[in-house]
């Protein structure tokens, strides 16, 4: 089951849910596994924050964003795969930018650049990390050098 991505046009999504649990007794090895399961089951975002809980115990705040149609699946994963005894969730509105993709050619290969557009203007621009990482590993060059080449190629191709 793959995650469904939001559409690339600018829009406001009023059907989002933010879910969260406090975890103070979960092995660290489980957290990556849980994150993968949540993404595979349709979470739009999953993240962890270190927190201090009652009695000053260190813990983890697991938060995720998903569509309201995914609440039951997310709860099932959280209850079955973590040590939580309760899940908090509440509605959330998300304003998503329009996304456009272009390609640039570097000396090592082609890289996709994602642009975020707000009200018709490009306000964000970033190379696709996984593509840059693969080039860096394949050609044994520093990742930052790949990024430098991407931006240089981008400016030259404009």
What can be said about this structure in brief?
By secondary structure, this protein is α+β, with helices and mostly antiparallel strands. The chain has helices spanning 28-40, 71-81, 129-139, 143-157; strands at residues 11-23, 45-52, 58-67, 88-96, 98-106, 109-118, 121-127.
Low-confidence stretches: none
Derived structural class: alpha+beta
Shape: globular
Number of helical stretches of at least 4 residues: 4
Based on CA atoms alone, the radius of gyration comes out at 19 Å
Descriptive account of the structure:
The protein has 158 residues and is α+β, with helices and mostly antiparallel strands. Helices cover 32% and strands 42% of the residues. It contains four helices and seven strands. The strands form two sheets. A four-stranded antiparallel sheet has the order 2-3-1-4, with helices on one face. Strands 5-6-7 form a three-stranded antiparallel sheet. A hairpin with a 5-residue loop joins strand 2 and strand 3. The longest helix has 15 residues. It is globular and about 55 Å long. Keywords: Nickel. This is LarC family nickel insertion protein. Pfam families: Ni_insertion.
Please write out the topology.
Layout: E1 11-23, H1 28-40, E2 45-52, E3 58-67, H2 71-81, E4 88-96, E5 98-106, E6 109-118, E7 121-127, H3 129-139, H4 143-157
Antiparallel strand pairs: 1-3, 1-4, 2-3, 5-6, 6-7
Helix pairs in contact: 1-2, 3-4
């Amino acid at each position: 089951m793959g995650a469904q991505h939001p559409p690339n046009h600018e829009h406001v999504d009023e059907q989002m849910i933010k879910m969260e649990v406090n975890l103070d007794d979960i092995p660290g090895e489980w957290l990556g596994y849980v994150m993968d399961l949540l993404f595979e089951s349709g979470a739009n975002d999953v993240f962890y924050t270190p927190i201090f809980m009652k009695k000053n115990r260190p813990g983890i705040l697991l938060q995720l964003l998903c569509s309201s149609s995914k609440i039951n699946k997310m709860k099932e994963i959280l209850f079955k795969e973590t040590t939580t005894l309760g899940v908090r969730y509440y509605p959330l509105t998300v304003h998503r930018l329009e996304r456009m993709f272009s390609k640039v050619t570097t000396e090592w290969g082609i890289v996709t650049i994602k642009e975020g557009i707000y009200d018709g203007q490009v306000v964000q621009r970033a190379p696709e990390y996984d593509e840059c990482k693969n080039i860096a590993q394949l050609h044994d060059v520093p990742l930052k050098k790949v990024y430098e080449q991407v931006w240089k190629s981008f400016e030259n191709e404009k």
